[in-house]
Amino acid sequence: MNIGIIGFGGMGKTHAYAIDNLKYFYSPVGFEARVLGVCCGHYENAVSACETYGFEKAYKNEDELIGDPEIDVVDICTPNCFHYETLKKAIAAGKHIYCEKPLCVTASQADEIAALAREKGLICAVVFNTRFLLPVMKAKELCEAGRIGEVVSFAGRFLHSSAHDPEKKAGWKQNRDICGGGVLFDLGSHTIDLIRWICGEFSSVSGLSQIAYPTRIGMNGEKWQTNADEAFYMTATLENGACGTIAVGKIMGGTNDDHSFEVYGTRGTLAFDLMQPNYLRFYDGTKPESERGFTSVECCGRYPAPSGVFPGVKAPVGWLRGHVGSMYNFLRCVNEGEIPKPSFDDAAAVQRIMEAAYASAKSGVRVEI
Ligand SMILES: NC(=O)c1ccc[n+]([C@@H]2O[C@H](COP(=O)([O-])OP(=O)(O)OC[C@H]3O[C@@H](n4cnc5c(N)ncnc54)[C@H](O)[C@@H]3O)[C@@H](O)[C@H]2O)c1
């Protein structure tokens, strides 16, 4: 599969990284996929992305990318307001599509796109990537298996601090004209998807939108009136009768990527927190009273086959990142002629300690290092 990525900012790079690394995480992958080329807001950025990441083709614009007969899959990573037109062009060209959330900026646009893709028989997915985190998958599995009984209540939160500083320049995600909405679109779309996926279809909502910092420095460096919600609070009812809350915002100081939810059922509770991504917390209300309480279900890297071989199933989320950091540190030192830390001297120190420990274990006496 030849994939063309439209928009090569944060998410374009994220998708390219995922495609490039499938071969490490899935064995066998079962198909071949590569990023054939990219297009960006400015052509020179596409050229530079090709040079940096080894893609073959820098496209001048999305029409050229979509029109390339070699492209099988169009991957849309542009700001939200552009998705609709790009989606229509890609569908007309008969391409399969992987599109970032939110799909569009209005429900009627999204309905139209979903219907068009269905009619054409194209394979299309929206990027609600949080569904693919193991604790979230485990929550879905336990919920479906009836381990918490019927869902009666839920609470979801997605909190960032990126707009906490009023002096910080506004980006396009805080501009309704480009984002199409505010934080509800940007973060809330993920949380709504998770609650809907795990708990059931929504039947009604009531919302409260907040702009805490009405004026900021805009994208052009001038004073600018914030026109998109910086926080959004929602109560919702589901078709199954469950009720709950969703709160999202970017004005919550001290938060990073604090995406969390609790699902309360008649027999138990599930709790997920993205900042603790190795565990799903589970309260099993069917246990004898003396054994009750939340337990942490370890998830780590236990993805189902054909994954799970690399990295090992016990590798916690983030383990590989430490290896990337270690390798960078070493190669940077080689490049700059610097003695790296941890050095061979550090290795030898550890070795002496281990040898002394063995000697102590054998002799039964304390050994000085
Ligand atoms: N799923 C997630 O975890 C997640 C996280 C962040 C953003 N997103 C979504 O991803 C999308 C992109 O967000 P981002 O954070 O990568 O934004 P970004 O600002 O980092 O990147 C956007 C890119 O699109 C390019 N671009 C703009 N107009 C273009 C055009 N007409 N043709 C081609 N390229 C164009 C820009 O040059 C830039 O490279 C948004 O829809 C956003 O909601 C998803």
Q: How would you characterize this protein structure?
A:
With 369 residues, the protein is an alpha/beta fold. It has three domains: 2-127, NAD(P)-binding Rossmann-like Domain (Rossmann fold), CATH 3.40.50; 131-298, Dihydrodipicolinate Reductase, domain 2, CATH 3.30.360; 319-363. The protein has helices spanning 10-25, 43-53, 62-67, 83-92, 107-120, 134-144, 176-179, 183-199, 319-336, 344-363; strands spanning 2-6, 34-39, 57-58, 73-76, 96-100, 124-127, 151-159, 202-210, 215-217, 223-225, 231-238, 243-249, 258-265, 268-273, 279-284, 294-298. Helix 4 links the parallel strand 4 (73-76) and strand 5 (96-100). Helix 4 runs parallel beside helix 5. Nicotinamide-adenine-dinucleotide binds next to helix 1.
| Ligand set | nicotinamide-adenine-dinucleotide
Content-based structural category = alpha/beta
Q: For the largest beta sheet, what order do the strands appear in spatially?
A: 8-11-12-7-13-14-15-16
Radius of gyration over all CA atoms, rounded: 24 Å
Overall geometry comes to globular
- Looking at the structure, the CATH topology of the largest domain is Dihydrodipicolinate Reductase, domain 2
Number of strands: 16
- CATH H level, superfamily name of the largest domain: Dihydrodipicolinate Reductase, domain 2
Strand content: 15-25%
Secondary-structure arrangement, i.e. CATH architecture of the largest domain: 2-Layer Sandwich
Q: Quote the average pLDDT.
A: 97
